[in-house]
Amino acid sequence: MSADDQKRISGEAAAELVEAGMVVGLGTGSTAAWFVKALAARKLDIRGVPTSEATANLARELGIPLATLDDVKSIDLTVDGADEVGPGLSLIKGGGAALLREKLVWEASKRCVVIADAAKKVDHLGKFPLPIEVVRFGHVHTGHRLADIAAEFELLPPRLRMAERGVVVTDGGNVIYDLPSGVIAEPAALGAALKTVTGVVDHGLFLDLADEALLGTDQGVVKLV
Ligand code: 5RP
Q: For residue 24, how far is its CA from the centre of ligand 1 (angstroms)?
């Protein structure tokens, strides 16, 4: 089965968790897009809270009624992809530059389900460079401070994320620095250190947030808790 098929079956399985009347957090990325499509096909009476402009546009096209995070008291269920799924359902997210809105929506959710293809499951976080969202003002200086923290954790310095058209700017108007880690031995300590830097808005370590994972594998969808 291709990675895309694995993403599709995990997204479809997650769509089955949604019940009428729910407020549903809609993740960002190619796996979350499969979830949004499968959810739209069920035509349930729900409201979706999108985690990015891209997901909002997709959901609107598919006829899913949307709410903002501030429109709702809480979110019943959020379904989102991940770049890595590590021990204890620790995650790296932000490959799609949506980590800030994603984390805000996850933290407002009663239940968070991560969906992914099998290759995303890892023994240690860090092979995927850790995305860090940084305010644009003075971001080069912030990048230097991040490099100092990286050195303390024996990691390589972070790199400003670029795309063909120039610097990547998030939906919140910030930039992303990617920290090429290798192995993140102490995710909680690294996350805490990154948050001490004023220019850092947030980082892509999602620790103690996921309640379960639905991994698409060649043998079908495998649930991790
Ligand atoms: C976006 C994310 C995505 O969920 C993550 O990058 C996984 O993407 P994909 O499902 O396309 O592999 O965190 O910020």
A: 17
Any idea which residue has 């546009």 for tokens? 57
Query: According to the model, what pLDDT value does residue 181 have?
Result: 78
Ligand 1 atom nearest the C-alpha of 31 is 10
d(CA 179, CA 38) in angstroms, rounded, equals: 33
Q: Specify whether 107 is catalytic.
A: no
pLDDT digits (tens, 9 = 90+) for 102-114: 999 999 999 999 9
Q: Report the nearest-CA residue for atom 10 of ligand 1.
A: 31
| pLDDT, tens digit, 9 for 90 and up, residues 2-50 | 999 999 999 999 999 999 999 999 999 999 999 999 999 999 999 999 9
Ligand 1 cavity residues, CB under 6 Å: 27-32, 80-83, 93-99, 102
- Whether pTM > 0.90 for this model: the answer is yes
pLDDT value, residue 83: 98
161 secondary structure, DSSP code = -
Distances (CA, A) of 208 to 26, 113, 178: 19, 12, 22
Residue 47 alpha carbon to ligand 1 centre in Å:
22
DSSP 8-state code for residue 182: S
